Amino acid sequence: MNTKFYKMRRNRMVSGVLAGLSDKWKLDVTLVRFLFAIFTVANFGIGVIIYIILASILPTKEEIEAEMYGTGPRKRKEAQAIEDNDGWFW
């Protein structure tokens, strides 16, 4: 079971933290945003600090999938240079 949290570029309003949480927990984005607003008001703005920390720490879902499935840029193979006198044959 994958327990990583992530941000999402799709359905985001600011940085995608709440969109990622709603996708992870299979909830509606509007519900998560509403609950976040209630939490922030009830706790005197502590939700904004948590949101900023999560926005700076969490990777995007696309980055996680690129690492997992190798959909990122192709890696270039590093080859050794061949010298004129490297003793290959004699």
From TrEMBL:
Topology of the protein relative to the lipid bilayer: Single-pass membrane protein
Domain of life of the native organism: Bacteria
TM annotation in the entry: 34-58
Record GO terms (molecular function): DNA binding
Domain Phage shock protein PspC N-terminal: 4-60
Primary site of residence: membrane
Localization (cell): Cell membrane
InterPro entries in the record: Phageshock_PspC_N, PspC
Protein name per its UniProtKB record: DNA-binding transcriptional activator PspC
Organism this protein belongs to: Streptococcus oralis subsp. dentisani
